[in-house]
Amino acid sequence: GIWNGSHFYGPGRLHKVTVRTDEGITGYGWNGGTAAEKPLGLYPGYVDYFRPLVVGRDPMDTRGLATDLGEKLIKILGPGGINTHVLAAINIACWDIKGKALGKSIHQLLGGAQKRIRTYIAGGYYAEGKGLEELQEEVRFNVEEMHASAVKIKIGDPTVGLAGDMRRVEASRQAIGDDLTLMVDANCALDLDTSLEFARLLPDYNVYWFEEPLPIHDYEGHGKLAAESAVKIATGENGYHLAHFKTLLDHKGASILNVDVGVCPGYDVAMDIAELAAQRGVSIAPHGCQELQLPLAAAISHGEFLEYYPVAVDPLRAEMFQPVLKPDDDGFVTV
Question: 108-334, which class in CATH?
């Protein structure tokens, strides 16, 4: 297994949802996946709950489905969690149907602003027996063999501490050289004081962004950190609704939003968040499953990065997605 600052992960698993239409078009959506220890055994119960609310509706009305089964059911299901994960898979499946019916890709339907988008390789997890040398080998492999021009590593393990994590940052920078982009991700593991200390030290290694330093609803803390940090603050992978992102940006708490179409209820809400980001001068770098996030990230002009999980981090990916999406020689992927 591997772990970050907050969670231990075993093998990744996917929860797939299939939607069939009376016109013979089948759509597929999914969630879970990359290194996720989600209770996927609970997901079918939500599919059973949503089924009678979906059957008979127009699959082309993805907006209506997202609203009626999301915001309008908050009193019944709560604001977010497994319900929005499952709703996301249903929404994505309906977008798949919409694209097949219209003869267009989801990327095109969402705007199609970019034909190619830069990737960064997500990795640098903690693991048993993985020291600085092994971390350097990993990030060097991502650069030399995976053509990455940007890599991300984990920080925030309380047993490693600030000093130990800064040694990891230093080792990673030494391994990839001065010209490539380095990001760090704390997975909400830190308090404000520790985050501020990291923010003071990270510029020494030209770190581009500091991801999820704080618990997601600490809006005031994000605002204080962003005001003090020379490194960009990125967050959003655990945000379920537009209101969360609006509150975050009202506090000026981030420069980059890591919205995830499998966590918020699908592409419609994710596009609302992307439009808000554009209004606030904030870029989008989605979190999670690259096969789902690519249509969103490349659909908008302010899509800055696509997160890319190599097979070494998520072996299931090589079995599920064919052909395997791979970065081009310059670290971009072509839609």
Answer: alpha beta
